[in-house]
Amino acid sequence: MKVAPSHRPTAGEKRLFALLNGLPKREFFFRYEPQIVTAVGASKPDFVLVSSLLGVLVIEVKDWRKLSGGTQEAIAVHTAGGSIEKLPNPVLQAEHYAYDLKDRFATRAELWEERKGRQALKFPWAVLVALPFIPQSEIARFEAVGIWPRGVVIGAEGVRDSASLEKAVRELPWKFKPERPLSLDMLDIIRELIDPSLRVDDAGGSPIGTLTRQQEALVREPVSVLLPKQASLFSAESLPSSHEQLIENAEVRLVRGVAGSGKTLVLARRAFRLHTEYPDARFLVLTFNTELARDIRERLGMDAKTPDAGLEITNFHKLCRHILIDHWLRPINARRWLSDHAAPELLALKLSSAVVAEELAWRRERNLLTDSAYLTADRKGRGYALDSERRTLINNMFNRYQADKQRRRAAGKSWFDWDDVAFLVESELERADHPLVGAYESILLDEGQDFTPSWLRVIKRLLRPGGALFLCDDPSQSIFHNYNWLQKGVSVIGRTVQLRVPFRSTMEISEAAHSLIEADDILRGAEERSELDLMAYELGRGPLPALVACPDAASEMRFVSEQVAGLLADGILPRQIAVLCHAYDQFLRWRHLSDRGVYVQIFERVKGLEFVNVFVPGLGSAFDDAHDAETVAAVRRKVFTALTRSRYRLVISYHGQLPAPLEALVPVTFSETYAPVSGVR
Question: Which CATH class is domain 507-673?
Answer without folding.
Answer: alpha beta
